[in-house]
UniProtKB/TrEMBL annotation:
Residues 1-184 form the FAD-binding PCMH-type domain. Keywords: FAD, Flavoprotein, Oxidoreductase. Gene3D superfamilies: 3.30.465.10, CO dehydrogenase flavoprotein, C-terminal domain (3.30.390.50), Uridine Diphospho-n-acetylenolpyruvylglucosamine Reductase, domain 2 (3.30.43.10). This is Unannotated protein. PANTHER family: XANTHINE DEHYDROGENASE SUBUNIT C-RELATED. It holds the Pfam family FAD_binding_5. GO terms for molecular function: FAD binding; oxidoreductase activity.
Length: 301
């Protein structure tokens, strides 16, 4: 099938991009890497009358680590809206500074798709089975949004509203996503199960643990993908881990807590019961891997 006709716009700078979106409102769709939008257009599941291509706004391709300081983004990795998933994956700073993001990126589709798809586009698209919305939620990332009304930051916890629906207004442009830099002695892991490498996973788990000098957990982050209409944070399981020793018993208790109230979707890829089961297994696996990586950080320091 071919897309329905649309008028194509390609503004050359951020001000023109924001002004174009303000003029066109909900008749327009932003085009970033096109890896989700173009299939939707081709299947006529989306039929905007205007398509606004962001690719010429080169300032938005930056990926910056902002160390502690006075500015609003101090202590964050700032990923600009045109930075591709592959740009960030190949950036040598990311594994040490935001290890959960580094672990999740190679699980997205295939390199050809990551060469075009953007980090911000994946979060703006908000597919509940996608890796990066769960990473953003687990880490308390901030989504930086610009429109003719100004710039604002939306916490990831307020961003994902329902299936493919976010707190964005039709004329909003996500200009960056800010990921907090990891504290020392943090280990992280993203684990998922899919039928074939590169497929959207049936379920996934983002886990991050920070240890104190005695090896006890001082910070725990857990978010699940593919088990609801939005990515889910497992706050009660996180609370149970903080202050605990990182043992298999603690990880088993966290897994039971994280999955107790899950009511995942049933579809052609997996039954609800199977999704719930693998989510529990993945929580344990991801926590164990995060713990091993946090310990490895101790040995290197
Ligand atoms: C075969 C295949 C397999 C895939 N497998 C996976 C997978 O396993 N895991 C995964 O996470 N993803 C997967 N994807 C999707 C891929 O990661 C997309 O790149 C991503 O979901 C969207 O990013 P994009 O830059 O391509 O956005 P686009 O497709 O250009 O846009 C997606 C949506 O987000 C909006 N949008 C994009 N950028 C912005 C912005 N800056 N501000 C406001 N709105 C914006 C667009 O208007 C559109 O509605 C797959 C894609 C394909 C084709």
């Amino acid at each position: 099938m071919k897309p329905a006709p649309f008028t194509y716009h390609r503004p050359a700078d951020l001000d023109s991009l924001v002004a174009t979106m303000a003029d066109l409102g909900d008749e327009a769709k932003l085009l970033a890497g096109g890896q989700s939008l173009v299939p939707l257009l081709a299947l006529r599941l989306a039929s905007p009358t205007h398509l606004v291509d962001m690719s010429r706004v080169l300032d938005l391709r930056a990926v910056d680590v902002h160390e502690a300081g006075e500015s609003a983004d101090a202590g964050y990795l700032v990923v600009g809206a045109n930075a591709t998933q592959r740009d960030v994956e190949l950036d040598l700073r990311i594994a040490a500074r935001v290890p959960l993001l580094a672990d999740a990126l190679p699980l997205i589709a295939h390199p050809q798709i990551r060469n075009r798809g953007t980090v911000c586009g994946s979060i703006a698209h908000a597919d509940p089975a996608a890796e990066l919305p769960a990473v953003a939620l687990a880490l308390d990332a901030r989504i930086v949004v610009r429109s003719a009304r100004g710039t604002r930051r939306i916490d990831a916890s307020d961003f994902f509203l329902s299936y493919l629906e976010t707190a964005l207004e039709p004329d909003d442009v996500v200009v960056a996503v800010e990921f907090p830099l990891a504290a020392p002695h943090t280990g992280a892991a993203f684990h998922e199960i899919s039928r074939r490498h590169g497929d959207f996973a049936m379920a996934g788990v983002a886990a991050s643990l920070t240890l104190d000098h005695d090896g006890r957990i001082v910070d725990a982050r857990l978010a699940l993908s593919g088990v609801a209409s939005i990515p889910l944070r497992a706050a009660a399981a996180e609370a149970g881990l903080v202050g605990a020793a990182p043992t298999d018993e603690a990880f088993l208790a966290a897994s039971s807590e994280a999955t107790a109230l899950l009511d995942p979707p049933d579809d052609i890829h997996a039954t609800a019961a199977y999704r719930k089961h693998i989510a529990g297994v993945l929580v344990r696996r991801a926590l164990r891997a995060a713990h091993e990586r946090a310990l490895a950080g101790f040995e290197q320091s």
